[in-house]
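Try it yourself: sequence plus farnesyl diphosphate, in.
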Amino acid sequence: MPRHVAIVMDGNGRWAKKRFLPRFVGHKQGVDALVDTVRACADRGIEYLTVFAFSSENWKRPEEEVSGLMGLVLMAVSRYLAKLAREGVRIHIVGDREAVSEQVRAAWDQAESSTAHNTRITLSVAFNYGGRWDVVQACRRAMVDGVPPEQLTEERLGSYMALSDAPDLDLFIRTGGEVRISNFLLWQSAYSELHFTDCLWPDFGEAELDVALTSYAARERRFGGIQGAAPQTAAALPAG
Ligand code: FPP
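Structure, out:
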């Protein structure tokens, strides 16, 4: 079982279009799918779930859709926060909060503070997040802290990245049929297993999660090594 799963929740618009409904209805249905998926992950012992709810590039969408998605945050927090808190979910928001309205920021603050003591599963919601933004903000913070270049190791820079308190990402899922990472967890997905499905996000549920978990269980994770071979150190290898 993976400890840390991330999902690009794609396909809300197409789900709505297929039903001759406005795109917003697809996003609203997407929130329900998310709540069900958090529960299903917690039931299976997954400790960390990270989802892409709004990318740094989603500002390019029509104003109506962007404000609809912001409104959905407020709706989701007022409708589901108490329930998720009771079920042991710790909510954590990752992304650039500067550009979002004060109302949305306040909703996220409330979601984080009222679930901070929970330990069953950590739900990290990437909102106004981009993988490249994450690398840049980590470098900036390391520079502000005065980390000398020769001390900027992968571990040290990793400690400034979003999700630094979570274990490495094990399984990266994308719904909606596209086979790309779309600037999601670029640093954190270095050795994660990838799973792509045509299922549109509002249709995602326990059955689809289990398909992804079964596929993950069959993977051989080598992290760049060879199965059965003892790891070497570069210094121990013959020159050349
Ligand atoms: C991609 O589908 C989905 C999004 C840009 C938004 C995802 C958001 C949610 C599921 C709601 C979660 C919200 C909160 C408050 C946590 P798309 O619109 O690109 O679909 P399409 O590819 O079919 O057009």
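One thing you can check immediately is this: The chain is about 40% helix and 15% strand.
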